[in-house]
Amino acid sequence: GEDVEQSLFLSVREGDSSVINCTYTDSSSTYLYWYKQEPGAGLQLLTYIFSNMDMKQDQRLTVLLNKKDKHLSLRIADTQTGDSAIYFCAETPNTGGFKTIFGAGTRLFVKA
Amino acid sequence: NAGVTQTPKFQVLKTGQSMTLQCAQDMNHEYMSWYRQDPGMGLRLIHYSVGAGITDQGEVPNGYNVSRSTTEDFPLRLLSAAPSQTSVYFCASSRGGAGEDEQYFGPGTRLTVT
Questions:
Q1: Along the 114 residues of chain B, how does pLDDT read in single tens digits?
Q2: CA–CA separation, A28 vs B62, rounded Å?
Q3: Which residue among A108, B18, B60, B77 is least crowded, i.e. fewest CB within 10 A of its CB?
Q4: How big, in percent rounded to 5, are the helix, strand and coil portions of chain B?
Q5: CB contact under 8 A, B33 and A98
Q6: Could you tell me if B109 lies within 8 Å of chain A, comparing CB atoms?
Q7: Are the beta carbons of B50 and A101 separated by less than 8 Å?
Q8: Which residues of A touch B98 (CB under 8 A)?
Protein backbone atom coordinates (compact mmCIF):
# COMPACT_ATOMS: atom_id res chain seq x y z
CA GLY A 1 0.00 0.00 0.00
CA GLU A 2 0.91 3.61 -0.04
CA ASP A 3 3.15 4.70 2.81
CA VAL A 4 5.50 7.54 3.64
CA GLU A 5 8.13 7.04 6.33
CA GLN A 6 10.43 9.49 8.04
CA SER A 7 12.42 9.55 11.22
CA LEU A 8 10.65 11.24 14.14
CA PHE A 9 13.44 13.45 15.51
CA LEU A 10 16.50 15.38 14.37
CA SER A 11 18.71 17.65 16.46
CA VAL A 12 21.28 20.05 14.99
CA ARG A 13 23.32 23.04 16.12
CA GLU A 14 22.50 26.51 14.88
CA GLY A 15 24.47 27.25 11.72
CA ASP A 16 24.85 23.60 10.74
CA SER A 17 22.98 21.97 7.86
CA SER A 18 19.94 19.81 8.57
CA VAL A 19 19.02 16.87 6.39
CA ILE A 20 15.58 15.34 6.81
CA ASN A 21 14.97 12.08 4.98
CA CYS A 22 11.83 10.40 3.75
CA THR A 23 11.02 7.21 1.90
CA TYR A 24 7.84 6.52 0.02
CA THR A 25 6.38 3.42 -1.54
CA ASP A 26 4.27 4.56 -4.48
CA SER A 27 6.51 4.77 -7.53
CA SER A 28 3.71 6.40 -9.49
CA SER A 29 3.73 9.50 -7.32
CA THR A 30 3.82 12.61 -9.43
CA TYR A 31 4.43 15.24 -6.78
CA LEU A 32 6.35 15.07 -3.52
CA TYR A 33 6.12 17.77 -0.91
CA TRP A 34 7.72 19.14 2.19
CA TYR A 35 5.44 20.89 4.68
CA LYS A 36 6.45 22.74 7.84
CA GLN A 37 4.34 22.89 10.99
CA GLU A 38 5.20 25.35 13.73
CA PRO A 39 3.79 24.87 17.24
CA GLY A 40 0.06 25.45 17.43
CA ALA A 41 -0.25 26.13 13.70
CA GLY A 42 -1.38 24.35 10.60
CA LEU A 43 0.91 22.96 7.94
CA GLN A 44 2.56 25.30 5.50
CA LEU A 45 3.91 24.16 2.15
CA LEU A 46 7.67 24.68 2.03
CA THR A 47 8.44 23.27 -1.37
CA TYR A 48 7.51 20.51 -3.76
CA ILE A 49 9.26 18.56 -6.47
CA PHE A 50 7.82 17.00 -9.57
CA SER A 51 8.71 13.37 -10.11
CA ASN A 52 10.73 14.02 -13.26
CA MET A 53 13.20 16.22 -11.35
CA ASP A 54 16.23 15.12 -9.33
CA MET A 55 16.85 18.29 -7.41
CA LYS A 56 15.23 21.57 -6.57
CA GLN A 57 16.83 24.46 -4.76
CA ASP A 58 15.07 27.39 -3.15
CA GLN A 59 17.27 29.72 -1.10
CA ARG A 60 18.38 27.69 1.95
CA LEU A 61 16.33 24.66 0.97
CA THR A 62 17.52 21.84 -1.29
CA VAL A 63 15.27 18.93 -2.17
CA LEU A 64 16.83 15.77 -3.59
CA LEU A 65 14.78 13.01 -5.16
CA ASN A 66 16.09 9.51 -5.83
CA LYS A 67 13.30 7.80 -7.74
CA LYS A 68 15.11 4.49 -7.96
CA ASP A 69 15.33 4.23 -4.16
CA LYS A 70 12.07 6.17 -3.58
CA HIS A 71 13.97 8.50 -1.30
CA LEU A 72 13.32 12.19 -0.78
CA SER A 73 15.43 14.52 1.34
CA LEU A 74 15.21 18.11 2.50
CA ARG A 75 18.43 19.93 3.29
CA ILE A 76 18.26 23.20 5.22
CA ALA A 77 21.49 25.16 5.01
CA ASP A 78 22.63 27.39 7.89
CA THR A 79 19.86 26.12 10.17
CA GLN A 80 18.39 28.77 12.46
CA THR A 81 16.41 28.48 15.68
CA GLY A 82 13.39 29.66 13.72
CA ASP A 83 13.63 26.47 11.67
CA SER A 84 12.62 24.42 14.74
CA ALA A 85 9.37 22.77 13.70
CA ILE A 86 7.88 19.53 12.47
CA TYR A 87 8.58 18.75 8.82
CA PHE A 88 6.20 16.53 6.92
CA CYS A 89 7.02 14.65 3.76
CA ALA A 90 4.02 13.94 1.53
CA GLU A 91 3.29 12.38 -1.83
CA THR A 92 0.48 12.44 -4.34
CA PRO A 93 0.02 8.96 -5.80
CA ASN A 94 -0.90 8.93 -9.45
CA THR A 95 -4.08 6.98 -8.79
CA GLY A 96 -6.44 9.76 -9.76
CA GLY A 97 -8.73 11.62 -7.43
CA PHE A 98 -7.71 13.81 -4.57
CA LYS A 99 -5.28 12.15 -2.23
CA THR A 100 -2.10 13.24 -0.48
CA ILE A 101 -0.27 10.77 1.77
CA PHE A 102 1.60 12.34 4.67
CA GLY A 103 4.46 10.96 6.70
CA ALA A 104 4.37 11.13 10.51
CA GLY A 105 6.63 14.19 10.54
CA THR A 106 10.21 14.82 11.68
CA ARG A 107 10.61 17.12 14.67
CA LEU A 108 13.66 19.33 14.13
CA PHE A 109 15.35 20.72 17.23
CA VAL A 110 17.88 23.51 16.66
CA LYS A 111 20.30 24.13 19.54
CA ALA A 112 21.76 27.61 19.92
CA ASN B 1 -7.51 37.49 2.69
CA ALA B 2 -8.01 35.67 5.98
CA GLY B 3 -7.07 32.37 4.30
CA VAL B 4 -8.50 29.27 5.98
CA THR B 5 -10.20 29.83 9.33
CA GLN B 6 -11.37 27.21 11.79
CA THR B 7 -13.52 27.45 14.88
CA PRO B 8 -13.32 26.60 17.67
CA LYS B 9 -9.61 26.33 18.47
CA PHE B 10 -10.24 24.01 21.41
CA GLN B 11 -13.20 21.85 22.36
CA VAL B 12 -13.92 19.26 25.05
CA LEU B 13 -16.84 16.90 24.51
CA LYS B 14 -18.34 14.07 26.49
CA THR B 15 -18.78 10.70 24.83
CA GLY B 16 -21.98 10.68 22.80
CA GLN B 17 -22.23 14.42 22.31
CA SER B 18 -22.40 15.88 18.83
CA MET B 19 -20.81 19.01 17.48
CA THR B 20 -19.77 20.77 14.30
CA LEU B 21 -16.28 21.99 13.51
CA GLN B 22 -16.41 25.03 11.29
CA CYS B 23 -14.09 25.75 8.38
CA ALA B 24 -14.20 28.68 5.99
CA GLN B 25 -11.94 30.01 3.25
CA ASP B 26 -12.06 33.28 1.35
CA MET B 27 -9.79 32.35 -1.54
CA ASN B 28 -12.56 30.97 -3.80
CA HIS B 29 -10.89 27.55 -3.71
CA GLU B 30 -12.81 24.65 -5.18
CA TYR B 31 -11.11 21.90 -3.19
CA MET B 32 -11.52 21.60 0.57
CA SER B 33 -10.62 18.78 2.91
CA TRP B 34 -10.57 17.71 6.54
CA TYR B 35 -7.64 15.88 8.13
CA ARG B 36 -6.98 14.58 11.58
CA GLN B 37 -3.53 14.58 13.14
CA ASP B 38 -2.62 12.06 15.81
CA PRO B 39 0.70 11.71 17.67
CA GLY B 40 3.31 9.76 15.70
CA MET B 41 1.11 9.64 12.61
CA GLY B 42 0.83 11.74 9.55
CA LEU B 43 -2.30 13.60 8.63
CA ARG B 44 -5.15 11.34 7.62
CA LEU B 45 -7.85 12.47 5.24
CA ILE B 46 -11.38 12.28 6.65
CA HIS B 47 -13.54 13.81 3.93
CA TYR B 48 -12.98 16.11 1.01
CA SER B 49 -14.93 18.20 -1.45
CA VAL B 50 -14.12 19.14 -5.02
CA GLY B 51 -16.76 21.84 -5.21
CA ALA B 52 -20.02 23.05 -3.75
CA GLY B 53 -22.49 20.19 -3.48
CA ILE B 54 -19.83 17.50 -4.00
CA THR B 55 -18.21 15.57 -1.15
CA ASP B 56 -16.43 12.26 -0.87
CA GLN B 57 -14.89 10.04 1.78
CA GLY B 58 -11.24 9.99 2.58
CA GLU B 59 -9.19 7.46 4.48
CA VAL B 60 -10.96 7.62 7.87
CA PRO B 61 -14.56 8.84 7.33
CA ASN B 62 -16.42 6.79 9.96
CA GLY B 63 -18.10 8.87 12.63
CA TYR B 64 -17.94 12.10 10.62
CA ASN B 65 -20.28 13.83 8.20
CA VAL B 66 -19.64 16.78 5.91
CA SER B 67 -21.61 19.01 3.59
CA ARG B 68 -20.60 21.74 1.13
CA SER B 69 -23.49 24.06 0.43
CA THR B 70 -21.24 26.99 -0.49
CA THR B 71 -17.76 27.35 -1.92
CA GLU B 72 -16.57 29.08 1.24
CA ASP B 73 -17.72 26.72 3.99
CA PHE B 74 -17.00 23.08 4.73
CA PRO B 75 -18.23 22.05 8.20
CA LEU B 76 -17.32 18.72 9.79
CA ARG B 77 -19.92 17.08 12.01
CA LEU B 78 -19.24 14.57 14.73
CA LEU B 79 -22.50 12.69 15.18
CA SER B 80 -21.75 10.90 18.48
CA ALA B 81 -18.31 11.71 19.81
CA ALA B 82 -16.04 8.88 20.94
CA PRO B 83 -12.69 9.02 22.79
CA SER B 84 -11.03 7.68 19.62
CA GLN B 85 -11.93 10.98 17.97
CA THR B 86 -9.66 12.90 20.33
CA SER B 87 -7.29 14.55 17.86
CA VAL B 88 -6.26 17.76 16.18
CA TYR B 89 -8.39 18.52 13.15
CA PHE B 90 -7.14 20.52 10.20
CA CYS B 91 -9.14 21.95 7.36
CA ALA B 92 -7.36 22.70 4.09
CA SER B 93 -8.26 24.25 0.78
CA SER B 94 -6.66 24.43 -2.64
CA ARG B 95 -7.43 25.91 -6.00
CA GLY B 96 -7.32 22.52 -7.71
CA GLY B 97 -6.61 18.93 -6.82
CA ALA B 98 -3.33 17.81 -5.31
CA GLY B 99 -0.38 18.61 -7.53
CA GLU B 100 1.08 21.99 -8.19
CA ASP B 101 -1.85 23.58 -6.39
CA GLU B 102 -0.76 24.30 -2.84
CA GLN B 103 -3.01 23.22 0.00
CA TYR B 104 -3.58 25.98 2.53
CA PHE B 105 -4.18 24.75 6.06
CA GLY B 106 -6.19 26.30 8.85
CA PRO B 107 -4.73 26.63 12.37
CA GLY B 108 -6.47 23.50 13.63
CA THR B 109 -9.08 22.53 16.21
CA ARG B 110 -7.87 20.53 19.20
CA LEU B 111 -10.68 18.19 20.26
CA THR B 112 -10.74 16.11 23.42
CA VAL B 113 -13.48 13.54 24.01
CA THR B 114 -13.81 12.28 27.55
A1: 789 999 999 999 999 999 999 999 999 999 999 999 998 788 999 999 999 999 999 989 999 999 999 999 999 999 999 999 999 999 999 987 656 678 899 999 999 999
A2: 28
A3: B18
A4: 5, 50, 45
A5: yes
A6: no
A7: no
A8: 31, 92, 98-100
